[in-house]
Each structure stands twice: as structure tokens, then as C-alpha cells.
Amino acid sequence: MTEKTLTRAEISDAIAESVGFPRHRSMELLEQILEQMIVGLVKEGELKLSSFGSFSVRKKNNRVGRNPKTGKEVMITPRKTISFRASHILKDSVAKK
Fold first, then answer.
1. What is the pLDDT of residues 44-76, one digit of tens each?
2. What is the C-alpha to C-alpha distance for residues 13 and 6, in angstroms, rounded to an integer?
3. What is the CATH number of domain 45-97?
4. Least C-beta-crowded within 10 Å: which of 17, 46, 49, 50?
5. pTM (2 decimals)?
6. Contacts of 76 (CB under 8 A, 6+ apart)
7. Where does the chain hold its CATH 4.10.520.10 domain(s)?
8. How are beta strands 79-86 and 73-76 bridged, if at all?
């Protein structure tokens, strides 16, 4: 399996081709979709996309870590991170390929 990152331009081109939009219009549409996803995550802390999965903001507490080079203990500050949980439909689609 080759590892390749799907770019915004490639997604935009696919939208333009399948829907018949001009490329610049499909890029605007994609940017608006992504912006609304960000707004939803920031505002609600959760975003669910039917048949795809759900994103959620998780809070990580402070903890003690270790610098791998020196072995010295370092305090890691609290932070927020985003987690993704794939839907069963997405998992099944990936498993079939």
C-alpha cells in the first residue's frame, strides 16, 4: 500500500469533475466545509459526520514526561487535542479494499 496524502487541490478537482463546478468554485466550497467543521469543533467540542465518523476535542492533563536524549524528566503542560473515531460504515469500507 503506497502512502500518499490527499491534498485539498485533489479533493477540489474531484468535486469540480463530479459536480461540474469550476475549479475555483469547488475550492471555495471545500474551504467553507472545512471552516464549518473547525467552527463546530471549537464551539461544540464535537463533530459527527454520518457514515464517516466523529471528531471530538479531548483535554489532556499535565503529566511528567522524559526527554529521550537526556533522560531528564520534564513537565508536559495541559492541552487540548482532537481525536477521531471512525464509523462502522467507514471501517467496513476500508476493510473490504
1. 999 999 999 999 999 999 999 999 999 999 999
2. 11
3. 4.10.520.10
4. 50
5. 0.74
6. 62, 63, 64, 65
7. 45-97
8. unpaired
Q: What number of other Cβ atoms are within 10 A of residue 96's Cβ?
A: 6
What is the band of 14 on the pLDDT scale with cuts at 50, 70, 90? very high
CA 36-37-39 angle, to 5 degrees, is: 60
Contacts of 94 (CB under 8 A, 6+ apart): 86
Angle between helices 8-19 and 23-44 (to 10 degrees): 120
Quickly count helices (H) and strands (E) in the chain: 3, 5
